[in-house]
Amino acid sequence: MLNDLAPQTRRSLLTMIGKAGGAAAMYQAMTALGHAAETQFSGPPKLSGARKGASVLVLGAGLAGMLSAYELMKAGYNVQILEFQDRTGGRNWTLRGGDTVTEIGGATQTVGFAPGNYLNPGPWRIPYHHQTVLHYCQELGVELEPFVQLNNNAFIHNSKAFGGKPQRHRELVVDFQGHVAELMGKAINQGSLDTAVSKEDKEKLLVAMREWGALDKNMKFDTSLHVSDRRGYDRAPGGGVNGAPTPSQINSLSDTLDSHVWQQISFYLEYVMQQTMFQPKGGMGKIGEAFAKQVGHLIRLNTRVTKITQNAKGVAAEWTDAKTGQTGTAAADFMVCTIPASVLAQIPVQVSDAKQAAIKALPYAASVKVGLEMKSRFWESKYKIYGGHSFTDQAMSLISYPSSGFFNKGPAVLLGAYAFGLGAYMLAGMTPEKRIEAALKQGSVFHPEEYQSEYLNGVSMAWSRQPWIMGCCAEWTEETRAKHYQNLASIDGRIVLAGEHVSYYGCWQEGAVASALDAVTRLHSRALSA
Amino acid sequence: MLNDLAPQTRRSLLTMIGKAGGAAAMYQAMTALGHAAETQFSGPPKLSGARKGASVLVLGAGLAGMLSAYELMKAGYNVQILEFQDRTGGRNWTLRGGDTVTEIGGATQTVGFAPGNYLNPGPWRIPYHHQTVLHYCQELGVELEPFVQLNNNAFIHNSKAFGGKPQRHRELVVDFQGHVAELMGKAINQGSLDTAVSKEDKEKLLVAMREWGALDKNMKFDTSLHVSDRRGYDRAPGGGVNGAPTPSQINSLSDTLDSHVWQQISFYLEYVMQQTMFQPKGGMGKIGEAFAKQVGHLIRLNTRVTKITQNAKGVAAEWTDAKTGQTGTAAADFMVCTIPASVLAQIPVQVSDAKQAAIKALPYAASVKVGLEMKSRFWESKYKIYGGHSFTDQAMSLISYPSSGFFNKGPAVLLGAYAFGLGAYMLAGMTPEKRIEAALKQGSVFHPEEYQSEYLNGVSMAWSRQPWIMGCCAEWTEETRAKHYQNLASIDGRIVLAGEHVSYYGCWQEGAVASALDAVTRLHSRALSA
Question: How far B18 CA sits from the closest chain A CA (Å)?
Answer without folding.
Answer: 17
